[in-house]
């Protein structure tokens, strides 16, 4: 299957080296074009709205040339699970000896399940965008239950993953974050919950302004261990 799609330009760009995005591994990031959400704070509008510029063949050639320097690959986006041949692409990456991390919004639970069952992924970062009552407002995606299916599966399978939320204090309050924490706790999530601070850039998907509201960490429930990123 893969050789039939090697010319596909599904990847918008490549970050050649990162020490931050794949826990305990030196990695590169493949940014897949397109997304099925429209989060207003998204700092990658050119990836969400744009087209792929790099073919799968070129991406694999890059990995071949970095075998002695990198350990892992992060498949991000956009939303990488929208790409219909991601499973075959992961097979090819694995043949090169790399570990794979996937960044996802959780809207393709069937694919995540196949990748895990076939040991084609080593770690997943799952974006818990907003509590159910605000999910569509934040994501412009109406199917919270699809995300929830991915979350349930990851918890029940005991697969190594993290739940994380991007925090813009004008969009999500302390009560909203507590609702997410409480939901994770009730569902049996036992990992670290990561809060990622919105970092303002001039061009976002929703022309988002800098945060005005104060966010008080002291108001968060202690049901889960919380780690802060970019704070």
Could you explain the architecture of this structure?
This protein has 231 residues and is an alpha/beta fold. It has a single domain, classed as Aldolase class I (TIM Barrel, Alpha-Beta Barrel). 30% of the residues lie in helices and 20% in strands. It is built from seven helices and eight strands; from the N terminus they run ββααβαβαβααβαββ. The chain has an eight-stranded mixed sheet with strand order 1-2-3-4-5-6-7-8, covered by helices on one side.
Output the keywords:
globular, metal ion binding, eight-stranded mixed sheet, alpha/beta, Radical_SAM_PqqE_MftC-like, 231 residues, 20% strand, 7 helices
Percent of residues in helices comes to 25-40%
Strands, count: 8
Helical element count? 7
Number of self-contained structural domains: 1
Task: Give the C-level CATH assignment.
Answer: Alpha Beta
**Rounded radius of gyration (Å):** 17 Å
The helix/strand class is alpha/beta
% residues in beta strands: 15-25%
Low-confidence stretches: none
The CATH architecture can be named as: Alpha-Beta Barrel
In CATH terms, what is the fold-level topology? Answer: TIM Barrel
For the largest sheet, list the strands in their spatial order.
Answer: 1-2-3-4-5-6-7-8
Provide the CATH superfamily. Aldolase class I
Tell the overall outline. globular
Order of secondary-structure elements:
EEHHEHEHEHHEHEE
GO molecular function: catalytic activity; iron-sulfur cluster binding; metal ion binding
Cofactor: [4Fe-4S] cluster
InterPro entries: Aldolase_TIM (IPR013785), NrdG2 (IPR012840), Radical_SAM_PqqE_MftC-like (IPR050377), rSAM (IPR007197), rSAM_sf (IPR058240)
Pfam families: Radical_SAM
């Amino acid at each position: 299957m893969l050789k039939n799609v090697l010319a596909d330009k599904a990847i918008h760009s490549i970050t050649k080296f990162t020490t931050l995005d794949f826990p305990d591994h030196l990695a590169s990031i493949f940014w897949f074009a397109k997304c099925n959400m429209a989060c207003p704070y998204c700092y990658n509008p050119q990836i969400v709205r744009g087209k792929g510029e790099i073919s799968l063949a070129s991406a694999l050639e890059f990995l071949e040339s970095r075998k002695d320097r990198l350990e892992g690959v992060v498949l991000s986006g956009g939303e990488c699970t929208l790409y219909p041949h991601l499973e075959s692409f992961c097979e090819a990456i694995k043949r090169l000896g790399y570990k794979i991390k996937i960044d996802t919004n959780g809207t393709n639970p069937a694919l995540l399940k196949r990748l895990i069952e076939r040991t084609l992924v080593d770690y997943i970062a799952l974006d818990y965008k907003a509590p159910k009552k605000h999910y569509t407002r934040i994501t412009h995606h109406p199917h919270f239950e699809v995300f929830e299916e991915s979350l349930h599966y990851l918890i029940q399978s005991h697969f190594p993953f993290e739940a994380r939320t991007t925090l813009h204090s004008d969009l999500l309050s302390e009560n909203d974050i507590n609702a997410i924490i409480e939901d994770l706790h009730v569902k049996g999530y036992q990992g670290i919950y990561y809060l990622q601070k919105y970092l303002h850039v001039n061009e976002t998907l929703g022309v988002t302004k800098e945060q005005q509201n104060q966010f008080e960490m002291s108001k968060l429930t202690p049901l889960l261990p919380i780690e802060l990123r970019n704070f």
